[in-house]
Amino acid sequence: MDFSLLRSLDEELLGSATRHDPDRLRELLHPHFTEIGRSGRQWSRDEIVESLASESERAPVVTADWQFSELAPGVALVCYTVRAAEGDSRHSSVWVLDGHKPRLRFHQGTFIATQ
């Protein structure tokens, strides 16, 4: 898989323009997409598309610590850190090739506890 493309897609999903675009989200998210949010709540594809459509505008975030692993042919794990005003969080995404384009199958974000 093209890891630079996966990074670009994950970064795109962090921005309000994509988060507010249900058609683009459905294009990027696998039909069986699941997310475990930073709150611990589990979301389905339909729930996350509906929720993000009405989300407040997000300030740009900084990402770091990118790591990529091919788990199987056509399946990749992407891990990274988001540095944002509300706190830093670690994220993991599982991308699968659906036809010839990657689609996000699973995502989890976890706040990093301050010590």
SSE layout:
Blueprint lengths: L2 H11 L2 H4 L2 H7 E8 L5 E3 H9 L8 E11 L2 E9 L5 E10 L2 E11 L4
Parallel strand pairs: 1-6
Antiparallel strand pairs: 1-2, 3-4, 4-5, 5-6
Describe this structure in words.
By secondary structure, the protein is of the alpha+beta class. The protein has four helices and six strands, in the order αααββαββββ. Strands 2-1-6-5-4-3 form a six-stranded mixed β-sheet. The mean pLDDT is 94.
Summarize the structure.
By secondary structure, the chain is an alpha+beta fold.
Features:
115 residues; alpha+beta; 6-stranded mixed β-sheet; globular
Number of helices: 4
Number of strands: 6
The SS-based structural class is alpha+beta
Average pLDDT, rounded to a whole number, is 94
Strand content: over 45%
List low-confidence stretches: none
The neighbouring-strand order within the major sheet is 2-1-6-5-4-3
State the oligomer: single chain
Give helix and strand order, one letter per element, not per position: HHHEEHEEEE
Tell the overall outline. Answer: globular
